[in-house]
Amino acid sequence: MTFSILDLTQAFEQHHLSAISGAQRGIERETLRIKPDGNLSTQGHNSALGSALTHQYITTDYSESLLEFITPVSTSIDESLNQLKDIQKFTLNNIDGDYFWPMSMPCMVDNEEQVQLAQYGSSNIGTMKTVYRQGLKNRYGSMMQVIAGIHFNFSFSKEFFNSLQEITDDSSPLQDFISDRYFALIRNYKRHGWLIPYLFGSSPALCPSFLQGKPHQLPFKKAPAGCLYLEHATSLRMSDLGYTSSEQANLKICNNNIDTYVSGVQQAINLPSEQFAHIGVKLNGEYKQLNSNILQIENELYAPIRPKRVAKSGQKPSDALKEGGVEYIEVRAMDVNPFVSTGISKEQMHFLDVFITYCMLKDSPQMSIDKKRVFNSNTDKVVLEGRKPGLTLNDNGIEKTIPEWGAEIFAEMQLIAGLYDKAYATTAYSDVIKDELAKIHDPQLTPSARILDELFTTGKGIVTWSMEYVEQFSKELTEHSYQVFDEKLLQQLAETSLQKQAEIENSDTLSFDDFLEEYFSK
Known about the structure:
Blueprint: H1 5-15, E1 24-34, E2 58-60, E3 66-70, H2 77-92, E4 99-100, H3 124-140, E5 150-155, H4 158-167, H5 174-192, H6 195-200, E6 205-206, E7 221-222, E8 228-229, H7 258-269, H8 274-277, E9 282-283, E10 286-287, E11 305-308, H9 317-324, E12 328-334, H10 346-361, H11 369-385, E13 392-395, E14 398-401, H12 402-424, H13 428-441, H14 447-458, H15 462-479, H16 487-507, H17 512-521
Antiparallel strand pairs: 1-3, 1-4, 1-5, 2-3, 5-12, 6-8, 7-8, 9-10, 11-12, 13-14
């Protein structure tokens, strides 16, 4: 039996309202380190921040210059944002005069050799992480390693799934039901995920230094101050300029259930690549990549949304999923919001609550590989020309404009927003749906349009414009009072993480070659 959004929201409101308010969230915010003049910082990860290998909140992503802040799980949006502010304040005070770049696309980079691979110490696992990044550099280039994004982790409460199972009269084992519903969510996200770059894409322009001679087919225009832009683009970060791979384009990874997904990912890890084989794996005693397969490890798989489960030490993500089922989802398609110091706003998090719940409750038919390609194509079109007048997207064979399709989606999301308002005794959810719907009908309200408008109105280049926000946000963080953590605790966490790294390094018994062989043989 198929249940409509109206059926489900009414059932939750009447009998299971408390189940709505138990959602858990976490933020992973990436930010590039820059010098006071707006150029890329070449400092290494400061010891005062702790170990990038073992610190649970402060680490690095692909580059030493690309910091990553990870908030612990929370049921409160305000708490998550305060956690992030606390972590950022501590970090800003301990990076020797560097600042945080507020954009997804990077600052001025004179030479891509300035981009230093992230370092994680001398342990086997630390070395593996750096070699993996060396492989990314050799496969995709260094500049990809300084593009920043926001990852939004979300899980529904057990009470929510118990209620949904009761409402839909489903009698399958609870964890099977949870995994199936999360994969239904993922399929719907792929159908409707074009909304995210349209509403929140914040990278329509870039500093010319990013290209570094890299070939591309994009018809860039040059602004008076020198930056490059696409007139109707929303998120250059999610275009072919970002982290994409033609080798991955032909992978047939299915999102219809957990078994086919895990099987597809594990097959991809073992699928040889003729292109990457030309790089070599270990030459003259030095690793160029972990292996020459299409994916070195599972993390290399690009996906705007992923099913996740916290893995045990040494456990591959797909094995964790196979063993325990889906625990939460990770939305990875978010540009850094350059208008707020945290890179993601409270309003965006309210919207994501509603949109993710819409994807969970909306009927979600099985998806063929061909259908998946169509939906990916919709997102690609929005990324490069989402604000183009008359642009149409393919909704199951029907061409619809963004206002047409968006209005249909928002009509149902308004029902979910009302449910959240009642559960949290607020109007914040309905308010944000109203505000975001206005963007659907007026592209000039989108952040990508706002950025271009400010660049042209002020006549500033992307670096000069961004530095004004750098100064504003640095002042804001300096004046911020610790809310969840405090300086002493964060200092203790840094010291403890360094001790943990030393313990890992001292406990290694295998050579790195043997370690890799054992890791990939599992």
